[in-house]
Amino acid sequence: MIAVDERYYEMIFKRRSFHMFPGTKHLSESELRGIENQFERLAPLMENVAVAFKLVSREETSCRRGEYCILIYSEKKDQYLQNVGYMAEQLDLWLASKNIGACWYGMGKTKETQWRGLDFVIMIAIEKVEETKFRKDYSNTKRKPLSEIWQGNGYPEIANVVRYAPSACNTQPWLVNAGQNRLEVYRVKGKRGMMPKKKVSFYNQIDIGIFLLFLELCLKHENKISNRELYSGELEESTEVLTAIYTIEE
């Protein structure tokens, strides 16, 4: 596995989704450059999938919130949506460390549907906000009971943090089977909330990439050395689709 910046871990407890922005602060030129520089520091889940990030003003998109939008483009290869979720959530956590609010804007559109030979996937709306606007008590976040997403008694210290991973419409489409020195991660079907039926699999695959990032940050924080094996399951429509297995060295 490629090393992910462990400093992202602390931002798990600070980040939140900004569905509304105050509109009272603006990003400076140096902050905008810093964001673009950060694009190059994101670790991929899939090294063989090309991804590009583009920072544009909100007015260049259909988005109605935030000051700027980050457009995410990718090759359409196996597991590319998981890869997008894994990489873009690193950016989400980094933005929180800089007091830049973010919102995954799944229904947003851009006229530039291709860039650098890659296809548009999704966008993130951003805006500078006061630090006080971020989450103060992450435990108040609405999430499924732990018993619905974590089976087995293994690694409760990880389970109690990773469950706060964000997801489209808060659907939390994941399930972990925690055995001895082994974590099996599944993408599961559930309530789709406000998502169009034909887009559920699309968003769920991005969400599971976000979840894998949170899981790996938690493993590293607990000094658990692990080996990861990824499974495609991209076209599978079963209730539970195996996504990854982590073998943990004790």
From TrEMBL:
InterPro entries, A to Z = Nitroreductase-like, TM1586_NiRdase
Q: Which stretches make up the Putative nitroreductase TM1586 domain?
A: 9-217
Please list the GO terms describing molecular function: oxidoreductase activity
Q: What domain of life? A: Bacteria
Signal peptide positions (record): none
Q: Name one Pfam family in it.
A: TM1586_NiRdase
Q: What is this protein called?
A: Nitroreductase
Q: Which organism is it from?
A: Fumia xinanensis
